Amino acid sequence: SITKPRSEVLYKEALQHIVGGVNSPSRSFKAVGGGAPVFMKRGKGAYFWDEDGNRYIDYLAAYGPIILGHAHPKVTAAICHAAENGTLFGTPTELEIEFAQLIKAAIPSLDKVRFVNSGTEAVMTTIRVARAYTGRNKIIKFAGCYHGHSDLVLVAAGSGPSTLGIPDSAGVPSSIASEVITVPYNSVEALEAALDRWGNEIAAVMVEPIVGNFGMVMPKPGFLEGLCAAARRNGSLVIYDEVITAFRFHYGAAQTFDGLEAPSLAAIEPDLTALGKIIGGGLPIGAYGGRKDIMEQVAPLGPAYQAGTMAGNPASISAGIACLQALQEPGLYDRLNKLAAGLEAGLAAAAREHGIALTINRIRGSLSTHFCSHPVSDYEEAQDTDGEQFARFFRLMLDQGICLAPSKYEAWFMTSAHTDDDIAATIAAAERAFAVM
Ligand code: PMP
């Protein structure tokens, strides 16, 4: 079993200077019983090593972006090349055009795009643009879907479903929260009821087309079609938050995904899309885009303002181009799918053998593990799972050098660097963990 004395020391030190010792709350171990998080020192491929030199198989993948594994040679070379040639000019560059073309080719609903620095910024701006375009103020979102930390979407982003917004964060005025209506995911009926009541005030319906924030959850057949039809009837825009989902399951987004797992996802197109995570190849990025007439609301063409000193910087754009090019390798996504399928089968068998109730939601190379015996298709079902059991499992895995996200709601992400041996080692570790549990 692993010991981490350096992480303990560094955590105490970090607490003196950095609020909570972490630069994003999801990195703390608060949701799994507290204590020092692991301080990582370096990563290569499917592994990272902590400050004590312990090696971990990484399924966190930095909450999603690291789909090629750590320090992928092509991405690293692109970043170094960008660094050597100047990281920021405050002018347009040719690279931005190349990257925009690459993304547009993969996601045809994007007539025009704009690069920003995070998923939060991307989502925040799609809402502004939708408001500018429709002249309406309210949005509808789905309970448990996380859309970054801007005021408007910090409503029911982590607490139970409510009809009229109650903010999840201090500092979000109730006047802002009252502009958000939250309904359960996978319920067209609830959406239609909200549209009946507030219809002429709704600028947009915002959705994770495939959920990544309360486990991996597929839209039920007909949900997205019903959502889009209801929104359009009402003159509201449809915004897909594809920050997690774009380039996750195949070379494209959820909106262009029409494999066996998702027979009808590609039948509809959103008006606006927010992107982030994978498209930056591990460097900070976000992007938003959509229909030409809507995107032309944005400054300097239109009245909706959005800007950024760091936006479209050559380092992030170069990393993004290299990442997307690497993701075009034939068979890459099928490999992620096979790895995750093997992991799913092994975890399920181990849980069965040890009498542990475990629901696994797997979508291609991503999966989530829910300690419960019911299916998980909305936020209520995801909440109604055994968090203490997850916390025990998380720690038992970490002690064996397997790193998951420290939250029962987060996914496990395969990277192209994981091997069959990594999966076998992970299943063996899970067997030992379940035996103790
Ligand atoms: N939207 C979704 C669906 C996300 O999962 C996240 C981040 N987990 C965000 C938006 C926010 O992105 P960022 O953390 O880059 O601001």
UniProtKB/TrEMBL annotation:
GO terms classed as biological process: protoporphyrinogen IX biosynthetic process
Modified residues (N6-(pyridoxal phosphate)lysine): 277
EC supergroup of this enzyme: isomerase
GO cellular component: cytoplasm
Gene3D superfamilies: Aspartate Aminotransferase, domain 1, Type I PLP-dependent aspartate aminotransferase-like (Major domain)
Reaction catalyzed: (S)-4-amino-5-oxopentanoate = 5-aminolevulinate
EC number: 5.4.3.8
Cofactor(s) recorded in Swiss-Prot or TrEMBL: pyridoxal 5'-phosphate
Pathway: Porphyrin-containing compound metabolism; protoporphyrin-IX biosynthesis; 5-aminolevulinate from L-glutamyl-tRNA(Glu): step 2/2
Pfam families in the record: Aminotran_3
GO MF annotation terms: glutamate-1-semialdehyde 2,1-aminomutase activity; pyridoxal phosphate binding; transaminase activity
Transmembrane segments: none
Cellular compartments annotated: Cytoplasm
Alphabetized UniProt keyword annotations: Cytoplasm, Isomerase, Porphyrin biosynthesis, Pyridoxal phosphate
Keyword field contains Cytoplasm: yes
Subunit structure of this chain's protein: Homodimer.
Family stated for the protein in its record: Belongs to the class-III pyridoxal-phosphate-dependent aminotransferase family. HemL subfamily.
HAMAP family, per database record: HemL_aminotrans_3
Entry protein name: Glutamate-1-semialdehyde 2,1-aminomutase
